[in-house]
Design a protein that fits this description.
five-stranded parallel sheet; elongated; five-stranded antiparallel sheet; alpha+beta; 22 strands
């Protein structure tokens, strides 16, 4: 519980009176009631001599010499040296008492002070203090509940500016309360374009009539994904009739409840029920059609051999088409063996981008990648989910408008990990519900039924949405369940000898939250997949091993906390340089070592990029030790790039890059073949 800003127990008192006998007498009475008391008979420079001391009560004579009692009380209250003031003496007039109360006096004590009067005064003050303490605790609990409740609580004025919004807005929408309240019409800006007219009409009615509302709407997260929710209000109209007439003081208070996961669950249930019904009907139809179809096709072939005729060719051709349709239904209904595990969606998207880089470049299609580095692990089959992403992107390529782009985005809700693939359509889809059915022969929908089935079998939802207008935008959204538990973080320390232990990180996320670097635990799997993908595509794969030099001395001189922050700055600088292509990935490899994975990169290109990385760290100019030491953190870099074969292991890349790094750092006399080293 947050402590009270005042002393509810009245523990310390200050007595100010020019009469020393009065001071001592009152002090003795106060000490008998439990006070620690200080007296002052010469208050000329009392405020300056307080030295930060603070008193619960100050008993001040109204008729002080040289310094007036009212003026002294004002100075003590303004400097917060005392919490409450009690004036003593005989007031000359009622105006004096009024002014005493105006400056903040809590009571008046006539002189000479009687012990009975003092006891009654202290009891009154204690009762007020207890009440204030209860109010403070209630306000604090209310504020704590309001800020931590898993709902967005807001108060909005008629001009759509926010009067209040709680801290939960950061969790649900990515904005701080200060950012939200500083922007006029912030809430209207975040409402989904298709919902804005309805929400504005609802708000206008609430302001005009004062009636509460409950309406479903969609808000746009700071990172671009959609948050489904229910907005409910308790509209408060001003009590004054004149204010109510002119609209002064009117506001709407309410809450926004995130129902994104509920929407995904409903979609999953609907899809599951729909596909279950479809599966039962399709299996029955396929079984009933196949036998007569085989008989018709068999008799038609025999007749065609004896007496060829155009009509028989038509029968055979249509029979073959029906046979192909039945095969598609059979493949669609065939069970799929999946191995669900915790996997990094960001890594899968990067791998898919690497596999599709050649196709994208051949069509001069622009990538727009927006990956949330704080996305947790998703429960899915990595290979199946990668295949889904590849098929969705290829569908986008087949239906892309001229000059279009493919946007890949990752995000997360309370319980799900989301993947969004958006693109500009050359033509809108007339019937989106048929997109994932296995009965269409158009090549435009090739692979979509399989994607839907794979996602559904992994416990996810695959949804298609299109925004119609001058720029028709289609969006595939894949939602997968989060992993409930995360592996325990590894422990390690910063050392200068290049040990392979890893510093403790928040491995709940695929990427380290502070620097955006791929975590060490996920590196081996991602790198092995990239090597296999480069082998299948017959593309050169580049690897850069980066070792931060001087971090041990830096940690010893500045402490591990500052060393970690410095490594985060280094990693951020490296990652920023690598973001020129979305396929490039920076991963942690050791305490102060990183590995950059560069798909479709030749040796010379990797060496040039390595020099760029070295210069980026040099430009940070992070001092190794204190101001008297001119050294700064630098990096040694080793580069290796070649086209892998089916027998190439990921360790070969790392070994060659380390060999080149050691050569550049002067640790070996010979240079590793096929490797390039760049020294600090």
């Amino acid at each position: 519980m947050q402590p009270c800003p005042f002393d509810p127990d009245l523990s310390r008192a200050l007595v100010v009176d020019n009469d020393r006998a009065t001071c001592d007498s009152l002090a003795m009475q106060l000490e008998r009631t439990g006070f620690v008391t200080q007296t002052c008979a010469q208050p000329d420079h009392l405020v300056e001599s307080m030295n930060g001391e603070r008193y619960s009560l100050a008993f001040i004579n109204l008729h002080l010499q040289e310094v007036g009692g009212l003026d002294l009380a004002t100075s003590l209250l303004d400097s917060q040296s005392v919490e409450d003031v009690v004036f003593m003496g005989d007031p000359e007039s009622s105006d004096t008492l009024v002014r005493a109360m105006q400056i903040g006096a809590c009571d008046f004590l006539p002189t000479p002070v009687q012990e009975q009067d003092l006891g009654m005064l202290l009891e009154r003050i204690r009762q007020r203090r207890r009440l204030k303490a209860r109010i403070h605790r209630a306000e604090y609990r209310h504020s704590l509940l309001l800020q931590s409740i898993p709902l967005i609580v807001f108060s909005i004025r008629p001009d759509l500016t926010l009067e209040f919004i709680n801290q939960s807005v950061t969790h649900f929408l990515g904005y701080s309360p200060e950012e939200a309240m500083a922007r006029r019409n912030w809430l209207g800006y975040l409402i989904h374009p298709e919902d804005r007219r309805a929400i504005r009409s609802t708000l206008r009615k609430a302001f005009d009539e004062g009636s509460p509302f409950s309406v479903e709407c969609r808000l746009i997260h700071r990172k671009g994904h959609i948050v489904h929710g229910i907005a409910r209000s308790i509209t408060e109209l001003p009590c004054d009739p004149d204010d109510r007439a002119n609209g002064a003081g009117r506001r709407v208070e309410g809450v926004f409840m995130d129902i994104t996961d509920r929407v995904f669950l409903e979609q999953a249930l609907v899809q599951s029920a729909k596909l279950k019904t479809l599966g039962s009907i399709s299996a029955e139809v396929a079984h009933e059609i196949r036998n007569p179809l085989m008989s018709i096709a068999g008799f038609a072939r025999r007749l065609n051999q004896k007496t060829p005729a155009p009509e028989l060719d038509i029968i055979l051709r249509e029979s073959a088409r029906l046979e192909e349709l039945l095969n598609r239904i059979r493949d669609y209904l065939k069970p799929v063996n999946l191995s669900r595990q915790g996997c990094s969606v960001n890594n899968l998207l990067s791998n898919a981008a690497a596999l599709l880089a050649t196709e994208m470049d051949a069509r001069s299609v622009e990538w727009r990648v927006d990956l949330d580095h704080e996305v947790p692990l998703a429960m899915a089959d990595p290979d199946a989910l990668t295949q889904v992403v590849i098929d969705l992107v290829r569908h986008a390529l087949a239906n892309l408008a001229d000059g279009g782009y493919v946007n890949i985005q990752s995000a997360s809700s309370e319980r799900n990990v989301l993947v969004k693939i958006s693109y500009l359509q050359c033509a809108p889809v007339s019937d989106p519900d048929r997109l994932f059915l296995p009965f269409e022969e158009d090549t435009d929908v090739h692979g979509m039924p399989l994607c839907s089935r794979l996602v559904r079998n992994m416990g996810g939802v695959l949804d298609f949405d299109q925004t119609l207008g001058k720029r028709s935008i289609a969006t595939f959204t894949v939602s997968m369940s989060k992993v409930d538990t995360a592996p325990a973080p590894l422990e390690g320390s910063f050392v200068e000898d290049g040990a392979s232990t890893v510093a403790a990180e928040e491995l709940r996320h695929c990427f380290e939250p502070r620097s955006g670097v791929l975590s060490r635990q996920l590196f081996d799997d991602v790198f092995a997949r990239t090597v296999r993908a480069s082998n299948r595509a017959k593309q050169s794969l580049g690897v850069i091993v980066i070792e931060v030099d001087g971090i041990g001395v830096h940690s010893t001189h500045n402490g591990q906390f500052h060393a970690k922050k410095s490594l985060d700055h280094v990693a951020s600088a490296l990652a920023q340089e690598l973001q020129q292509l979305p396929c490039n990935i920076l991963a942690r490899y050791g305490d102060h070592e990183y590995v950059a994975i560069l798909p479709d990169t030749l040796q010379d290109e990797a060496a040039t990029l390595g020099e760029t990385l070295r210069q980026a760290v040099h430009d940070l100019a992070i001092p190794v030790a204190g101001p008297e030491d001119s050294r700064t953190l630098e990096v040694h870099i080793g580069v290796s790039a070649f086209t892998p074969t089916s027998s190439t292991s990921p360790e070969e890349y790392i070994a060659q890059a380390y060999h080149a790094l050691d050569t550049a750092a002067g640790r070996e006399e010979r240079r590793a073949p096929m490797g390039s080293g760049i020294s600090a």
